Amino acid sequence: MSRYASHSQEILYRDGKLVGFNAGHGFYTEHNLEYGGKEQVKYEETEGSNKEHPFDGEIVENPDEIHMMEFSDGYVWVTNSSETYSRLMEKTEEERRKIIEKYIDNNDKKITDEILLKKLGIVQKAPGIVALWSAGPMKTDGIFDLISINEQGNKLLKTLYSEMQKRNVAISSDYSFLFKDRGLSFVVLNQLTPEDIRKKELVDYRDEMSRQFQQEYIEYLKKEGLYRGFLEKREGHKYPIEIREIRECKVKTNMNGEEVLEFYLEIFDISKEREFYMHELWNLTGNQIKALVPIVQSEEYAEYARNHSGEENEKYLIEKLALCCQREEKEEVPHIDKKFFKDIATEQGTETVEQRYVSLINMIDDWLEPDREDKLEKKGE
After folding, report:
1. Residue 339 pLDDT more than 50?
2. Contact predicate 260/333, CB 8 Å
3. For residue 181, is pLDDT > 60?
4. Does residue 46 sit in the same domain as residue 96?
5. What gap in Å lies between CA 15 and CA 11, rounded to an integer?
6. 148 with 35, same domain?
7. Which end of the chain has fewer surrounding CB within 10 Å, N or C?
8. Are residues 180 and 198 in the same domain?
9. Distance between CA atoms of 225 and 28, rounded to whole angstroms?
10. SS3 351
């Protein structure tokens, strides 16, 4: 079964017409992965379709892969799993209803609701649609199940299914240019405005720059003997730690008011037989990563790591990083004014990836949040 999506569900209408639906996400990293389903695959007859479209690769090209079941009480179930659909069609209405109840009130949902209530004091509102989805291990393995539980949900899913059959819907795990958050999202293409398309193109370009920058750091860490991908075989190890994931770079403002790049990392202590995930070192800037490398490569740390626990090793690295970063000069990320927006095409070839990425983030933020500059000016005054 796919994972229960419990956060950020959002429905967008304009002038009474459906523009999009964000099915949301759960307490896991599913929304950080790129969704891809069989319904988006281009076969021979559709190979050249939508080639120049900004949503190319995300559009429903094979509507036959999407199935809808309508129950006697009016509730609707939409899925892209032919297996699930075939299995349900062999059942009686009563048997299907029991299966729906299992999907709607599953253990994943119970655990999530309990965490929200006990730790954050949040009571979950019953959404119009219960969504379960998985990005899948491969590009075309994405699965989703959308089940309506009220009249609003019935209407939404019927409309969405109808538009998918017309190949008029695009699907992604991140349409945050349109919605407030990530999550499995569906947009009705002929309801998007030119401004929506422009935002999509900017965000896609930003993401491409992000991938380039992440790749540069992966290559750097591989060269230093510290990075191993999840699917890569380990052939011995020189150092007490191993980095297995680096992604999701974003811009944040540090204590000096400088804009710096920050990454999500997964760092493991492998100095003992049992590995230890260093969960406190999951968010580091580019400069912090570069400062971490010589620390973990030192004989001093190798000796310390052998004689201490994973928790103690992590604390040691945090303290060393803090001391090291205090000595570092401010991170060199130049301030790019608005003129750079006009010159970006000619300057792309001369800037570093880091400079291009930071400046692009600023420009996209200005585009997506036009009142951002006004707020900053007021703060300056």
Report:
1. no
2. yes
3. yes
4. yes
5. 13
6. yes
7. C
8. no
9. 29
10. coil
| Whether pLDDT at 117 is above 80 | no
283 lies in the same domain as 273: yes
Do 218 and 124 belong together in one domain?
A: no
Q: Which domain holds residue 59?
A: 3-192
Dihedrals phi, psi of 14, to nearest 5 degrees: -135, 125
Residue type, 65: E
Residue with tokens 């290559």: 219
What per-residue confidence (pLDDT) applies to 190? 95
**Looking at the structure, do residues 347 and 252 belong to the same domain, yes or no?**
yes
Single residue among 192, 222, 237 that ends a domain in this structure: 192
CB 179 within 8 A of CB 20: yes
The one-letter amino acid at 4: Y
pLDDT in tens, 9-43: 889 999 999 999 998 876 554 545 688 999 999 87
Number of other CB atoms surrounding residue 264 within 10 Å: 16
Tell me the pLDDT tens digit for each residue of 120-172. 665 555 568 888 888 877 778 889 999 998 888 999 999 999 999 999 999 99
Contact 197, 19 (CB under 8 A): no
pLDDT the model gives residue 294: 94
Q: In this structure, which amino acid lies at residue 365?
A: D
In this prediction the pTM is 0.67
| Residues 267, 129 share a domain | no
- Tally of domains within the chain: 2
